[in-house]
Amino acid sequence: MSAELLERARAGDRAAFAALVDPHRGELQAHCYRMLGSVQDAEDAVQETLLSAWLGLAGFEGRSSVRTWLYRVATNRCLNLVRAATRRPVAATPLPMTAPEPSRHGEVFWLQPYPDVLLDQLGDELPGPEAQYESREAISLAFVTALQTLAPKPRAVLLLRDVLGYPAAEAADLLGITEDAVNSALRRARAALDAARTAGGATDAAPPPAPGSPQERELTERFVAAFTELDIDAIVDMMSEDSWLKMPPLPFEYHGPEAARRFLTAVHAHRTGIDAMVPVRANEQPAWGMYVSDPTSEVLRLTGLVVLGLAGDRICEITRFEAAVGAHFGLPRTLPR
């Protein structure tokens, strides 16, 4: 940390403040996303964190790094947001038919995908030596979904300890609680997270192929062909026995290939073909913006975003999101035919 930058920032120099905090903005947003499960809410939390840091700069005594201080402010801001239940309303486009009975009703209706381009903005700081998760696993949709099922304080403790790798004493200082309370919350969080991930089929699956690898390209090209051609048999044949089909903010979730087949068959009679699938990446997973022909104009219209979870040479999760998330990925609302 530059003492000169800090003194200039305390004197009201906004450029100096930006130089202090901007290197940490990307990782703060990823942290807030893990806490909140929503890109929009994470963006708001980061903005409020930086405003709070600017206003409270005079109280920063320099006993920790600027990075750790910002994590303290951001984590507590996220905890306040979760406790206050001040999430923005989430609207869902109703299904065009009566859905088959789902395997379960999902509870994380606010979940949004996280653009990989934002992960490119992460700083150079590496997780501490006590981190338990690799960065790719800790941003996956399955992991973030499971996090949302934890109580707020254990969720924060697990992220600080097992994802960021802060020692127990430092995590306790960040949260303003005792080290014993941190250790107790971490035990509860690990047990609850393991249970949630097991229920979601995320623990025993084979690892995904490397991003951009021939194995990933072969599987995703087959999926795109089947999806655009409405080939239900081909889609189902690619799914693992423990796969899930989800569509937040709608709560319906379907477990296993046959449940997915029932849903896709019901949708088939009411669905027009997908005319274009524009590739993006979300949560370090392959994803596409889906476009269909607009019957009233000469354009293709964005109807949603689909994200694949891969396990070995199989699809373990298909998650379809509303078209509104496309803006975070730079996907235009319309394309020329």
TrEMBL record:
<dbReference type="GO" id="GO:0003899">
    <property type="term" value="F:DNA-directed RNA polymerase activity"/>
</dbReference>
<keyword id="KW-0731">Sigma factor</keyword>
<feature type="domain" description="RNA polymerase sigma factor 70 region 4 type 2">
    <location>
        <begin position="142"/>
        <end position="193"/>
    </location>
</feature>
<feature type="domain" description="RNA polymerase sigma-70 region 2">
    <location>
        <begin position="20"/>
        <end position="87"/>
    </location>
</feature>
<dbReference type="Pfam" id="PF12680">
    <property type="entry name" value="SnoaL_2"/>
</dbReference>
<dbReference type="Pfam" id="PF04542">
    <property type="entry name" value="Sigma70_r2"/>
</dbReference>
<feature type="region of interest" description="Disordered">
    <location>
        <begin position="197"/>
        <end position="216"/>
    </location>
</feature>
<dbReference type="Pfam" id="PF08281">
    <property type="entry name" value="Sigma70_r4_2"/>
</dbReference>
<dbReference type="InterPro" id="IPR014305">
    <property type="entry name" value="RNA_pol_sigma-G_actinobac"/>
</dbReference>
<keyword id="KW-0808">Transferase</keyword>
<dbReference type="InterPro" id="IPR036388">
    <property type="entry name" value="WH-like_DNA-bd_sf"/>
</dbReference>
<keyword id="KW-0804">Transcription</keyword>
<keyword id="KW-0805">Transcription regulation</keyword>
<dbReference type="InterPro" id="IPR013249">
    <property type="entry name" value="RNA_pol_sigma70_r4_t2"/>
</dbReference>
<dbReference type="InterPro" id="IPR039425">
    <property type="entry name" value="RNA_pol_sigma-70-like"/>
</dbReference>
<comment type="similarity">
    <text>Belongs to the sigma-70 factor family. ECF subfamily.</text>
</comment>
<dbReference type="InterPro" id="IPR014284">
    <property type="entry name" value="RNA_pol_sigma-70_dom"/>
</dbReference>
<feature type="domain" description="SnoaL-like">
    <location>
        <begin position="221"/>
        <end position="317"/>
    </location>
</feature>
<dbReference type="InterPro" id="IPR032710">
    <property type="entry name" value="NTF2-like_dom_sf"/>
</dbReference>
<dbReference type="InterPro" id="IPR013325">
    <property type="entry name" value="RNA_pol_sigma_r2"/>
</dbReference>
<dbReference type="InterPro" id="IPR037401">
    <property type="entry name" value="SnoaL-like"/>
</dbReference>
<protein>
    <submittedName>
        <fullName>RNA polymerase subunit sigma-70</fullName>
        <ecNumber>2.7.7.6</ecNumber>
    </submittedName>
</protein>
<dbReference type="InterPro" id="IPR007627">
    <property type="entry name" value="RNA_pol_sigma70_r2"/>
</dbReference>
<keyword id="KW-0548">Nucleotidyltransferase</keyword>
<comment type="subunit">
    <text>Interacts transiently with the RNA polymerase catalytic core formed by RpoA, RpoB, RpoC and RpoZ (2 alpha, 1 beta, 1 beta' and 1 omega subunit) to form the RNA polymerase holoenzyme that can initiate transcription.</text>
</comment>
<dbReference type="InterPro" id="IPR013324">
    <property type="entry name" value="RNA_pol_sigma_r3/r4-like"/>
</dbReference>
